[in-house]
Specification:
By secondary structure, the protein is α/β, with parallel strands linked by helices. The protein is built from 14 helices and seven strands. The protein has helices spanning about 10-20, 35-40, 55-60, 60-65, 80-85, 105-110, 135-140, 140-155, 160-170, 175-185, 195-210, 210-225, 240-250, 280-285, and strands spanning about 25-30, 45-50, 70-75, 95-100, 225-235, 270, 295-300. A seven-stranded mixed sheet has the order 3-2-1-4-5-7-6, sandwiched between helices. Helix 12 runs parallel beside helix 13 (about 240-250). It is globular.
């Protein structure tokens, strides 16, 4: 863990947004290779780190020992953060950070089946449990596959690709899937973007329920953060960022006042000081090209009780 294979994106900006002080309790909702956790621990914070990937938890054991008593690794989905923390006797925390999506460790390990850059089993499961990408693609009907490609990959040729997938079944490897998509879309080697990218993203999001997990995770952070606590969320594509932007807009909006009903009051904002979208600087992009699509948004929790919907 001292030479983490994953470079945390927008690290300085995330740490500045959370502004950790010695003794602060912070939830790193997506531990990964521990980049954010390490930076927060170095500032004196106490960190509870969630990750549903058993590989991440196992490989974080060294960091947990290094910061014995101040880092706790929790093998749970981050959507359950409020419940899990309450079970540990912690009802409120000073900060929550979420780094949404797939990690570099997952992408770079062919055996996990997340990427088409190397041949591997068609898996894509972050938790290594439940339905795999191969299960879905080999058993779902054509309409369901097309819907996933359209909804989560914004793939305009979703029906054509779904038809090709069904015709080519069974698919067993990442290479099988990439070849089917490329053939369906008429891929030309050397094109600036591989046409399989959107399909791989869509299938991965579906298999892991990533957008539902994000919605529930944001609600959990709202319940868990104390007044003055800070939320920082890093996303990597428009579907994720849209959810975060909408959540923060709704959570920070003030009730409209009517001259006809001056005493009628709607819900007060549960977040304030909402940032604009923050993106990596050129220097970071030069060091880490994978940061190019990252967006950070952050906000501060008010003293207003969490909304019932949260």
């Amino acid at each position: 863990m001292t030479a983490a294979p994953h470079v945390p994106v927008l690290l300085d900006e995330v740490v500045a947004a959370l502004d950790p002080r010695p003794g602060d309790v912070i939830v790193d909702a997506t531990f990964g290779a521990g980049g954010y956790s390490r930076a927060l621990l170095e500032r004196g914070a106490r960190v509870y780190a969630f990750d549903r990937d058993p590989d991440a938890i196992a490989e974080g054991a060294g960091l947990e020992r290094e910061y014995s008593g101040r880092l706790n690794l929790l093998p749970h989905e981050f959507s359950r953060m409020a419940q899990v923390m309450l079970e540990r006797g912690i009802a409120a925390v000073d900060g929550v950070v979420l780094d949404i999506g797939v990690s570099s460790m997952q992408l770079d390990r062919a055996e996990r089946g997340f990427a088409f850059s190397a041949e591997g089993p068609l898996d894509m499961r972050m938790s290594r449990k439940g339905e795999s990408a191969a299960d879905f693609l080999n058993l779902a009907d054509e309409a369901a596959i097309a819907d996933v490609l359209w909804r989560y990959g914004e793939e305009r040729q979703s029906r054509r690709i779904a038809r090709a997938i069904v015709a080519a079944r069974p698919l067993e490897t990442t290479g099988d899937l990439a070849r089917v998509v490329r053939q369906a879309l008429g891929y030309r080697p050397g094109a600036p973007k591989d046409p399989a990218t959107r399909s791989f993203q869509a299938i991965r999001i579906h298999v892991n329920g990533e957008l539902d997990e994000l919605v529930q995770g944001l609600a959990g952070a709202e319940r868990l953060l104390r007044a003055g606590g800070r939320l920082a969320v890093v996303t990597f594509h428009s579907l994720e960022d849209r959810i975060v932007k909408h959540f923060l807009r709704q959570a920070s909006s003030r009730p409209a006042r009517s001259r006809h009903l001056p005493d009628a009051a709607g819900p007060e904002p549960v977040f304030s000081h909402v940032s604009k979208a923050i993106r990596p600087a050129e220097a970071e992009l030069a060091r880490n090209p994978r940061a190019r699509s990252a967006t950070l948004r952050h906000a501060v929790r008010t003293a207003v009780p969490a909304r019932e919907a949260a």
